[in-house]
From TrEMBL:
This is Synaptosomal-associated protein 47. Its main location: cytoplasm. One of its GO terms (molecular function) is SNAP receptor activity. The keyword Cytoplasm applies. Residues 356-418 form the T-SNARE coiled-coil homology domain.
Length: 419
């Protein structure tokens, strides 16, 4: 992720201690730093990392009103005249600061990341791919349940059609027909059981991912912290106390706009009344966007500032593609048989030759990588089997719908004759 991307910026004033005066400019937030640029000169007066902040407070005095102070190491920075208001800026800055401290990419992890081995890098890469496959499996499982519910509903419709067919036969039979009374005795006990299984599936639905967010409703200037929860059937926005603010079912979402890798907006359109729209900002949003892209591929739109994120997501280093799989197996081969060439074939490409020249990974890392690869293979096979099952279910549903349609047309013609 590009560390220079601007997440948000606000017009404000900064107290310049050297000249003892207030300077107007813009306060900017990036994924890892806070910056202040003066309006008149364009000079960068403030530039420090989020990991170096020890405190963010809302303060005021007899000279400074509605100010925001940031304690960075031993230096206290004062910001005032914040727009749209101080609370909005405070909530967003505090959110990203706390997430930076909690994240593995914080100050302590930054130094360790520089010394990470190729094994650790590859382990992190495969772990991310495993998480992506697990999320995909959850969505596929939910879709499979929906197909099962559709099949049960169609079977129930076909049963009702059989009942209607018997009733029509009774009506079409002459009054002297001796077996007509038996045709009315149709079992009706099968109705309640089907509805119960359909309603229970949603209650047992699992959570794919839950992240902390800063919530803005429609065009309101006020923001408040909360949570975004993604399910296979939709998404849910709740406050800090886990009270649901709004739940969007998949069919209710009309569009999702990705403004930056850290900010999205979700909207449901209505005719004759205002749309339901929420703008969500989060330091963890890059983890949720790939899942949203998978669930709402036809409804999601990446705006200009987020196009770079799309390219990074679809690069071979992120997806579990052929090149990554070859790199993983190649490195593992170098550990198990250090003396043998990686890949062992004449068709070895330049990337594999380069990997062979790099440092070898440890036995512990190789063991961990093998376990992850084994899980990935199992998840991929399960996903493939589920997709095949869903294809068969779709064929059955199509056949059943066609058969039901023909029965309905046939019964409509019989009803017309009776009337």
């Amino acid at each position: 992720m590009n560390e220079d991307i601007r997440i948000h910026s606000w017009p404000c004033s900064y107290y310049l201690d050297t000249s003892k005066q207030w300077v107007s400019g813009r306060l900017s937030l990036t994924p890892v730093a806070i910056k202040f640029t003066a309006d008149k000169t364009g000079e960068l007066l403030v530039n420090f990392r989020l990991s170096s902040i020890s405190e963010i407070k809302k303060e005021s005095s007899n000279l400074i009103f509605s100010s925001l102070t940031i304690l960075e190491k031993n230096t206290k920075h004062w910001f005032s005249s914040l727009q749209p208001n101080r609370n909005v800026v405070f909530n967003i800055l505090e959110h990203f600061w706390r997430e930076q401290l909690l994240s593995s990419q914080g100050a302590g992890a930054e130094a360790a990341a520089l010394q990470s081995t190729k094994g650790k890098e590859l382990t992190g890469l495969l772990t991310g791919s495993q998480k992506r496959l697990e999320d995909t499996a959850k969505v596929l499982h939910y879709q499979g349940e929906q197909f099962d519910n559709i099949m049960r509903g169609l079977n129930k419709i076909e049963g009702d059609m059989d009942v209607a067919d018997r009733l029509l036969t009774e009506l079409e039979s002459p009054s002297w027909w001796p077996f007509s009374s038996k045709l009315w005795k149709v079992p009706l006990e099968t109705k309640p059981k089907e509805t119960a299984t359909v309603s229970d599936s949603k209650n047992q639905e699992g959570i794919i991912i839950r992240i902390p967010v800063i919530i803005t409703h429609r065009t309101d200037s006020n923001v408040k912290p909360g949570k975004l929860t993604l399910f296979a059937s939709g998404l849910e926005i709740s406050d800090c106390n886990s009270q649901v603010i709004h739940r969007f079912e998949s069919k209710d979402v009309d569009d999702i706009r990705v403004h930056t890798p850290y900010e999205i907006s979700v909207r449901q359109r209505f005719i004759g009344k205002p749309d339901t729209s929420y703008r969500l900002l989060s330091a963890k949003m890059p983890e949720a966007i790939p899942i949203l892209d998978m669930q709402f591929s036809k409804k999601i739109q990446f705006l200009e500032d987020a196009l770079g994120f799309v390219g990074a997501r679809k690069s071979p280093q992120v997806d579990l593609g052929t090149s990554m799989w070859q790199a993983a197996t190649g490195l593992l081969g170098g550990v198990v048989q250090p003396g043998s060439p990686v890949g062992g074939g004449e068709g070895m490409d330049n990337d594999q030759v380069q990997l062979q020249k790099q440092e070898k990974i440890s036995q512990e890392e190789a063991k961990e990588l093998k376990q992850i690869l084994k899980k990935l293979k199992g998840l991929a096979l399960e996903a493939e089997a589920e997709l095949e099952r869903q294809d068969e279910a779709l064929d059955s549903i199509t056949t059943s719908v066609d058969r039901t349609t023909l029965n309905i047309d046939k019964q409509n013609r019989r009803i017309k004759k009776l009337t």
